[in-house]
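Lab notebook: predicted structure, single chain.

Context: the supervisor wants predicted structures on file for every construct in the current expression panel, including those that have not yet been purified. This is the next one on the list. No modifications to the sequence; it matches the entry in the shared construct table.
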Amino acid sequence: MIIDITLNDLKEITSNSDVIGKTFENKAVILCFHLTEKMLNKDFYLDIEKPDGTKFRTQKLTAEDSKINYAIPNSILDISGFMNIEVILQKDDLVEKYPSLNFKIEEAINAIETIPEDNPTLV
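Prediction complete. Output recorded below exactly as produced.
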């Protein structure tokens, strides 16, 4: 599944989906950020907050053809609830933050931590 996210120079951000979940299990969820020309010379990071409050920042992400694709690791999708993602653009000491995007994480088989003990479909 690819979620298209568009940013503009007025610090506005839009997404074509706000749900990640069961419908898309066993497929990578890719966030595709569409950037303006002015953004391409800045370092691009994501601040991610999981539903349990755990926060982390990605490594610097690189643009190709005015887009940045970020494949969300399953370890981020292991808890159902709401996840917040904030785009950070940085050039030297100047840091720009975009409003947070909120995604609902629905429980997905490939993201749960335990496997049921009794599964008749497994031999």
